[in-house]
Amino acid sequence: MKLHYYPDTDSLYIDLADAQAAESQEVRPGVVLDFGPDGRLVGIDLDRASQHVSLDTLDIEDLPARITARATDVA
C-alpha cells in the first residue's frame, strides 16, 4: 500500500494493490474508488483530501509488513 499526496491539487491517492484500475466509481463527490480487472479494490482517490482526512499525522498500528517512509519538508 502506498499513499501519494499531491499538494498542488490537495489530492490523496491510496494505492492498495500493484494493479492498474480497470473501472472507477465516484461514491461521493471527490471520492473515487478504483477497481482492478478482477473487481478488487486497487485504489482510492480523494480530491480536496484535507477536507476528508487529517494530513497532519499518519499512525500505523499492527501491520504485518515492512514499513518504509519518505518525508519531505513543507515550507
Topology overview:
Layout: E1 2-6, E2 11-15, E3 23-28, E4 31-35, E5 41-46, H1 49-52
Antiparallel strand pairs: 1-2, 2-5, 3-4, 4-5
Task: Classify the secondary structure makeup into a structural class.
Answer: mainly beta
Q: Tell me the radius of gyration.
A: 13 Å
Distance between the termini: 27 Å
**Succession of helices and strands:** EEEEEH
- Global mean pLDDT: 87
In one word, what is the shape? Answer: globular
User: What characterizes the major β-sheet?
Assistant: 5 strands, antiparallel
Strand content: 35-45%
Strands, total number: 5
List low-confidence stretches.
none
Query: Into which percent range does the helicity of residues fall?
Result: under 10%
Number of helices: 1
Strand adjacency order, main sheet:
1-2-5-4-3
